[in-house]
Task: structure prediction
Amino acid sequence: MDIQPIRRALLSVSDKTGILELARFLVERGVELVSTGGTARLLAEAGLPVTEAGNLTGFGEFLDGRVKTLHPAIHAGLLARRDRGEHLAELERREITPIDLLVVNLYPFEETLAAGAAFDACIEQIDIGGPAMIRAAAKNHAFVAVVVDPADYAGLMAAIGEKGGTDLATRRRLARKAFARTAAYDAAIATWLAGATGEFLPERLPVAGRRASELRYGENPHQKAALYAVGTPRPGVVGARQLQGKALSYNNILDADAAFELVAEFADPALVIVKHNNPCGVAEGSDPLDVWRRALACDPVSAFGGIVAFNRPLEADLAEELAKIFLEVVIAPEIRPEAAAVLAARRNLRVLETGGLPEPESRTPLLRSVAGGFLAQERDAGSVDAADLRRVTARAPTEAELRDLLFAWKVAKHVRSNAIVLARGRATVGIGAGQMSRVDAVEIAVRKAESQRGARPCVVASDAFFPFPDGLVAAIEAGATAAIQPGGSVRDAEVIRAADEAGIAMLFTGMRHFRH
Result:
């Protein structure tokens, strides 16, 4: 099992959680402690015998603490192979004692960055000596144990208490975790500097994720899966507080993210119902109860077992309506205590509180894997207002039609392509998603609209141009009196002619919203 005893340990931590308990445990077992700076002071004040690292190196800390452990007396003690006589002889000749355990966690660069600190303050939180020691110890894990996470202290103490030292499997696992930590640390710094220099997509894009939770399985039961948090926290499902319900599944997370990102697009109270990563009902207005009813009316069948996102604090009266049907997830910036009490009756319902809404224009890159690599792009923060639109028909839209067109355009941005959205009164009445043919998407949206009363007249939004008049004509026949689309087809003139012949208004955005 290759148990390596621990005779000397170097402790140097920014996060002091649990360090005194670990240090006392080591001292009780005759381990010599070496430490630096604030950690050394903490140990000494607790009455524990500790040797300052400066006493080993012959140098005290200098350059405002930037240089403390960058010295052969430290690194040779970590890197020397215990199975090579010449290494041990070299240590003895230079009067260097091996270090068997390194406990280090790094300066809080990520936390400082997340707090919005100034550039120079972030620079000072870039650790140099810590990563160097971690990498040295992790490289030599055949003989040295390295711990970078306070969560591993208990396991380390249990292993030492039971076996008198650490076994190779434990040291290898800790080394893997140590290298992952320094890689993530460097990735955070590189990403930050890329943003500071305006390089959104640099020649090397480091990506590091922290596992937020292990999932029961992925899209299907035979697939393993986990949720990872990446980069600067963004209000949403990853950082949300789960108030109740079963553990989130892979599909729950995808759907909740889709719903919350869409609902954040709206300034007025809005509610989104998502099923299988596509909205099946969206509404905006001043009365949350009315917003819910109108969103649900778009497709009540698909809403069963869906995900609901709201962009306001969830009150008890709306919670009572939500509790009347089967839902998988409810997500909102805040869940009022009275609303939480209502939803508690649905024990399996997942209830998520995000603490805020995301900014649609965030520069956080979107990543998507492909075989052998991944794609990276900016978030689709494209938006239009009335001043950006170009009227291409004889008739202009009415004020009510214009409001609905802008509403439908926001929704279409979050519907899988080909995407068609029919809307009336700032509520969807029909959505066609993910079709190979735009005409098929129109027909699906029309079929949804025709299943409910009051869906006529309506407006239609298309995420990309109509390549032929047929899709637009089908929407007109279903009651569309105005249309919004990017334009840009070689047959735009034919499509415009069809709109004029029907007497409807049509606006071009000049912007496409494909969502594959």
The chain has a mean pLDDT of 92. The chain has 19 helices and 23 strands. The radius of gyration is 30 Å.
